């Protein structure tokens, strides 16, 4: 079992092959069946999950991402910032990239990109609210700061893309034939040696000796 998992891991993370697939995609982008992809998208569950996750991230980028404010004598003052205001424009850029990768069936690269964005999102969810608390700490009152709905949209979107990656390569175990591989090479059949028929040797037929027919004895005179 362990050996099988190691073989699957090596096959999935074959970066030479994955880079070649990506290069082949850009080379053949003009011949890509865009309409056919739209018609068959529902049949590609990992691809559909990745697209849904990237769409969640796209929406979350425009929603309140971080909130910060002060409560003093019952008065609450809060401010909200979206992803761009928190300096996360590169996460939005990666979101657009992942939308394209998911559409073009490049779930491997979409999954890796999402893992990178997930790390950034978690760090932002910790560091940015903490920086607000430090900056507003000189106020009298209670300083509150934390993540908002946009942060959760982006987080769940990233997890959905990573889940699509795991589903495709480790659960379904249905790896598609790489687009970059050369056309299927015809398997040459081993030449069959002609069967040499052994010459049929006819056995010599022994001559049949004819049995001499005895001549009838001459009739005796009465």
Describe this structure in words.
This protein has 222 residues and is mainly alpha-helical. It is 51% helix and 9% strand. The chain has helices spanning 2-12, 15-27, 34-39, 45-60, 89-103, 107-135, 149-171; strands at 66-72, 75-81, 142-147. Helix 4 (45-60) packs antiparallel against helix 5, helix 4 (45-60) packs antiparallel against helix 7 (149-171) and helix 5 (89-103) packs antiparallel against helix 6 (107-135).
List keywords for this structure.
222 residues; mainly alpha; 3-stranded antiparallel sheet; 7 helices; elongated
Topology (SSEs and partners):
Blueprint: H1 2-12, H2 15-27, H3 34-39, H4 45-60, E1 66-72, E2 75-81, H5 89-103, H6 107-135, E3 142-147, H7 149-171
Antiparallel strand pairs: 1-2, 1-3
Can you summarize this structure?
The chain has 222 residues and is mainly alpha-helical.
Strand composition percent? 5-15%
* Helical run tally: 7
The tally of beta strands, per DSSP, is 3
Percent of residues in helices: 40-55%
Oligomer: single chain
State the major sheet.
Answer: 3 strands, antiparallel
Give helix and strand order, one letter per element, not per position: HHHHEEHHEH
């Amino acid at each position: 079992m362990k050996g099988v998992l190691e073989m699957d891991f090596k096959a999935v993370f074959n970066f030479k092959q994955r880079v070649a697939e990506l290069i082949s995609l850009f080379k053949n982008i003009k011949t890509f069946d865009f309409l056919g992809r739209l018609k068959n998208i529902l049949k590609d569950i990992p691809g559909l999950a990745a697209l849904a996750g990237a769409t969640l991230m796209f929406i979350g980028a425009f929603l309140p991402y971080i909130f910060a404010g002060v409560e003093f004598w019952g008065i609450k003052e809060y401010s909200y910032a979206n992803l761009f205001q928190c300096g996360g424009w590169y996460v939005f850029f990666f979101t657009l990239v992942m939308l394209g990768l998911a559409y073009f069936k490049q779930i491997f690269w979409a999954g890796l990109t999402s893992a990178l964005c997930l790390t950034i999102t978690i760090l932002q969810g910790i560091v940015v609210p903490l920086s607000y608390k430090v900056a507003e700490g000189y106020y009298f009152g209670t300083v509150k700061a934390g993540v908002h709905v946009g942060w959760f949209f982006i987080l769940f979107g990233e997890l959905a893309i990573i889940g699509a990656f795991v589903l495709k390569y480790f659960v379904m175990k249905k790896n598609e034939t790489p687009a970059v591989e050369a056309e299927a090479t015809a398997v040459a059949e081993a030449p069959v040696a002609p069967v040499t028929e052994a010459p049929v040797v006819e056995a010599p037929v022994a001559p049949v000796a004819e049995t001499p027919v005895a001549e009838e004895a001459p009739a005796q005179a009465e």
